Amino acid sequence: MNTRNLDIDLLRAFVTIADLGGFTAAGARLGRTQSTISLQIKRLEALVGRTLFERTARSVRLTLDGQVLLGSARKILHMNDKVIAELTEPDVSGAVRLGVPEDFATAHLPDILALFTDAHPLVELEVTCDLTLNLLDRFHAGAFDLVLVKREPAAVPQGVRVWREPLVWVARDQEAVDGNEVIPLVVSPEPCVYRKRATDALDASGRTWRIAYTSTSLAGAQAAVKAGLGISVLPRKMVPAFLVPITTAKWLPKLPDTEIALIEGRSISDTGHLLAQHIVQALEPITN
Given CB 3.0 to 4.6 Å as the disulfide criterion, which of 22, 72, 185, 229 pairs with 224? Predict the structure, then answer.
């Protein structure tokens, strides 16, 4: 009889690498060093007797055996997290309206919210993605029970900070930005915090810029940058593998860090407050 048991931590490292496309990014997400993540994958490969990743100096790809394991690994993690949530969190019901910036929702929230809804199937969760300033306006008008919003690190504290990381300029490649006297920008429509950060920084450094492409969606903006239509601004951990962070160009000014804050409404329900606590606790090991 085969008595080998799969380790949940090893599977989580494996799935995170597959999702984020690299060992360093997975380590940042899981709060571990790159060397620790590498060691975990070696242990998992030894356990299953298969090579799971093809690694080169520039990329990490799943092998055929890795692709076979990925689907089962997701199911095992999903069941593990569901059982833990059911045993450690009280059963609740009700509706909760959450507003969140699209980029943050795309990169960090799906698994966190799925875990919450799996543990509390009676909760009706309504999530809306929009620009931060629009979210704040609608929040103050009573449209949301809680919101995740971008804010300036030096701003008067409002809500609980749940995320902070550097902003970086991103481009298709270094050649796409070299030699441009007028900087072409790929941005979201106004009002957008990152758009204002980019234009304010360029104005302060005396650089001339123009809006080359405006997109209401994160995917559309990233596609425009990938096509070489301009450069954009993203949080460092949200840069996809097909774009390049431009950190060495002297003609691009340094950008301040970005912060995400969670704000609860004054009349929030117990269910809404439970979701807020869940989000804070889930993000804490990622940000630390």
Answer: 229
